[in-house]
């Protein structure tokens, strides 16, 4: 109880600091810290899957993405700054009151979908409810989300420009050696998260985020990693969405409806979809950070 | 009981994010404010899901989806900002 | 064997509290030291020690060998990444100072 109160105060203070500071670097660092605090909140709210995803994607990957782009953006920007007036403040206050009223009135009528989920859990092919919802009961949502990720990356790829401010390379062999040691271990952790997703918190998204971190580590150490020209990379990027939709069509032909699986084969199909999706998500997330990155500039002696 | 606190915190995050969106000095900070608002919405969803004894799995799956979509939007927004910045540097670019 | 389990559990709680004290000390060092290099020193050493104590305390309370081994792997990864990151930050601070 005390922990909750302290966490809430900390989160609100950090969010306030993030939007009020004039130093962009500070805003990004506070945002990453805020993401970590929010991951703690997700753990307090009995949502370990979401906590894993928030820590990996929302705090870690977002931090890398923001810091990588900070260098390339000018200090002052052409952002339109709206003039605030009493009209705006009163609307903001009314919104706050209306949301508060809505929140208070929701609390008195709790309805849960969990009994429904648990009733159908045996025929879903996995034993973890969140994975069952993600990959079986609401599979179409997850497939479309993978498609959104793919489209965002494609749009980003067509937007980046040619002149970058380069990064200084880091000297010495400590980074290279440590990354060479760590990379197989991180890949192993990603596979472990994927495998455990069927029976405990984990799954394709967390695994994909850890894979993306592994490839970003390789890039930071300037070790050979992702090669954009290779066909296998492009197949890997597209593979998640494609396999998902193909299996969905297969389910349609087998009589279980679009995105449905026959009950006895569901576990196998889910594992296949999750494996390809984790690879795809990892490649897409790493590509979103790397797609517009220049090469390293050698240190001037 | 903790559900109440986190619902109010979610409300606070949405309002702070909206304030930041309007009053930010830089496009990057506006993107961060949008993501703060998104985190507020996720917090409300998960607080409502945590009211039941085994926490409701459907809002948790929705929030998991939402986190990934929020990151995609952040990445695309940053790419758009960089493109805008390159036009500002070189007005005859188009 | 109840007193043995209870004793181990209390010892684990004591170790975790000691680890938290180390984390607080590291954060105080971060806030109070002037030079970046000093802050790096305080943060890395204190946080690694604190993490180690917390992990050992958790291992004593762990429900099985597998969980305990996973906790040790987490500790190893934490140590590796903390030392690597502090090395890189120190290197960049050093090169900044050389450029000035």
How would you sum up this structure, described in words?
With 301 residues, chain A is mainly alpha-helical. Chain A has a domain at 128-301. Chain A is 69% helix and 1% strand. A two-stranded parallel ribbon of chain A has the order 1-2. In chain A, helix 6 (129-137) packs across helix 7 (139-159). Chain A starts with a helix and ends with a strand. Mean pLDDT of chain A is 85; it is low at 297-301. Chain B contains three helices and no strands. Chain B is 83% helix and 0% strand. Chain B has a single domain, classed as Helix Hairpins. Chain B has helices spanning 2-23, 27-49, 57-89. Chain C has 100 residues and is mostly helical. Chain C has one domain (2-99). Chain C has three helices and no strands. Chains A and B meet through helix 1, helix 2, helix 3, helix 4 and helix 5 of A and helix 1, helix 2 and helix 3 of B.
Features:
heterotrimer; A: 301 residues; mainly alpha; two-stranded parallel ribbon; B: 94 residues; Helix Hairpins; 3 helices; 83% helix; elongated
Low-confidence stretches of chain B: none
Please identify the top-level CATH class of chain B: Mainly Alpha
Task: Describe the main β-sheet of chain B briefly.
Answer: none
User: Largest interface, and how many residues on either side?
Assistant: A-B, 87 and 76 residues
Gist?
The complex is a heterotrimer of chains A (301), B (94) and C (100). With 301 residues, chain A is mainly alpha-helical. Chain A is built from eleven helices and two strands; from the N terminus they run αααααααβααααβ.
Annotate the secondary structure layout.
The complex is a heterotrimer of chains A (301), B (94) and C (100).
Chain A: H1 2-20, H2 24-44, H3 48-70, H4 86-106, H5 114-120, H6 129-137, H7 139-159, E1 167-168, H8 174-196, H9 204-220, H10 231-253, H11 266-290, E2 296-297
Parallel strand pairs in A: 1-2
Chain B: H1 2-23, H2 27-49, H3 57-89
Helix pairs in contact in B: 1-2, 2-3
Chain C: H1 2-32, H2 36-60, H3 65-99
Helix pairs in contact in C: 1-2, 2-3
């Amino acid at each position: 109880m005390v922990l909750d109160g302290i966490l809430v105060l900390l989160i609100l203070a950090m969010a306030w600091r993030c939007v009020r500071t004039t130093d962009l670097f500070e805003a990004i660092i506070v945002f990453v810290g805020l993401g970590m605090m929010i991951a703690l909140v997700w753990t307090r709210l009995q949502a370990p899957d979401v906590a894993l995803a928030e820590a990996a994607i929302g705090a870690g990957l977002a931090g890398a993405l923001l810091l990588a782009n900070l260098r390339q953006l000018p200090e002052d920007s052409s952002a339109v700054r709206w003039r605030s007036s009493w009209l705006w403040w009163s609307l903001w206050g009314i919104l706050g009151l209306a949301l508060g009223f809505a929140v208070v009135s929701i609390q008195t009528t709790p309805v849960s979908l969990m009994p429904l989920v648990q009733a159908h859990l045996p025929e879903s092919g996995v034993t973890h409810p969140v994975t069952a919802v993600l990959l079986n009961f609401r599979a179409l949502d997850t497939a479309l989300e993978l498609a959104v990720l793919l489209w965002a990356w494609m749009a980003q790829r067509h937007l980046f420009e040619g002149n970058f401010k380069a990064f200084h390379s880091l000297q010495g062999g400590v980074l290279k050696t440590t990354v060479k040691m760590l990379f197989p271990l991180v890949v192993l952790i990603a596979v472990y998260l994927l495998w455990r997703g069927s029976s405990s918190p984990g799954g394709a998204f967390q695994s994909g985020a850890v894979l993306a971190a592994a490839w970003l580590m390789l890039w930071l150490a300037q070790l050979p990693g992702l090669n954009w020209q290779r066909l296998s990379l492009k197949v890997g990027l597209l593979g998640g969405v494609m396999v998902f939709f193909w299996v969905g069509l297969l389910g349609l032909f087998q009589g279980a409806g679009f995105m449905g699986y026959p009950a006895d084969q569901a576990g196998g199909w889910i594992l296949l979809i999750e494996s390809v999706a984790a690879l795809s998500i990892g490649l897409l997330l790493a590509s979103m950070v790397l797609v517009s990155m220049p090469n390293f500039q050698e240190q001037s002696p | 009981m903790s559900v109440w606190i986190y619902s109010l915190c979610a409300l606070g995050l949405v309002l702070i994010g909206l304030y930041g969106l309007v009053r930010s000095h830089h496009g990057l900070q506006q993107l961060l404010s949008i993501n703060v608002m998104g985190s507020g919405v996720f917090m409300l969803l998960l607080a409502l899901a945590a009211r039941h004894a085994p926490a409701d799995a459907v809002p948790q799956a929705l929030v998991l989806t939402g986190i990934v979509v929020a990151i995609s939007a952040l990445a695309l927004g940053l790419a758009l900002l960089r493109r805008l910045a390159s036009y500002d540097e070189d007005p005859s670019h188009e | 064997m109840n007193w043995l389990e209870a004793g181990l559990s209390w010892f684990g709680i004591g170790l975790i509290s000691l680890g938290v004290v180390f984390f607080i000390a590291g954060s105080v060092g971060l806030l109070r030291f002037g030079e970046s290099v000093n802050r790096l020193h305080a943060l890395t050493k204190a946080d690694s020690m604190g993490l180690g104590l917390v992990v050992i305390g958790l291992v004593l309370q762990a429900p099985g060998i597998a969980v305990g081994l996973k906790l040790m792997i987490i500790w190893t990864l934490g140590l590796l990444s903390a030392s690597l990151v502090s090395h890189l930050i120190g290197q960049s601070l050093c090169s900044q100072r050389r450029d000035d």
